[in-house]
Amino acid sequence: MARAPMVRSSLLLAGCLGLAAACTSPPEPADEAGGTGTETGTDGGADDWADSLEEDDEGTGETGPEVPLGPEVIDYETCIVDPGAPTASIVGETPDGPFSGQYAYFGWLTCEGEPLSPTLVVTETPEALAAAVAELPRGAQGGALPLPSLEWVLLGNCNPENGWTGKGGGGINLRTQGGDSLGFASFSLIENYKLFDPVDPEDPPTMHGTIFFGDGWTLEGEFTAVYCGALSYEFEGC
């Protein structure tokens, strides 16, 4: 099923803003936490990053150093649909019944074609993603929506200065044939690999972390998300 952009973006925005204050710095500098695939050179928190984007105190209109949020060019074509062995174990109960997330992927939430945040998606089988990719219109730039699946974005929850690694919390959507359910979870992005590099299908980017749900959900587990450009999509109204 293809994505319904306006509805989906609105729900994700609500989830991002709802717990943005939960954002914290990584427990360790990025180079000690397992490597981020890029030299970030900082252990500052999200507030520091946000402050760096403000005008300077003298009102010159200058801003702080540009922080790379993602790759220079979004690759919508490459998608590692079946990475072989399962890449996640996120298992438990949801308001819609049991969910057993065995395969994790990520794409990019974009703004006018530029990367804004990683978007992470967990499915029960690779076939769910394959079916969603097959239903995309010819020439579509992303927008695949596998069902059932979990999706969350790091925007407002983790610090891009640290290669998006760190601890945060936010809204997560469970997508099913019957509709969406919004839950809230805490998560850690422990490390990433080649996140900012051009995508190599033989050695694709990955993001590794953990997630823990509360508020009536019992899902928890670990994931290593592999790149799928078909999961990328434009954030409406950015």
Automatic annotation (TrEMBL):
Keyword Signal among UniProt keywords: yes
Keyword list, A-Z: Signal
Organism superkingdom: Bacteria
Signal listed as a keyword: yes
Biased amino acid composition, Gly residues: 34-44
Acidic residues: bias regions: 45-60
Signal peptide start and end residues: 1-30
Region (Disordered): 25-71
Protein name listed in UniProt: Lipoprotein
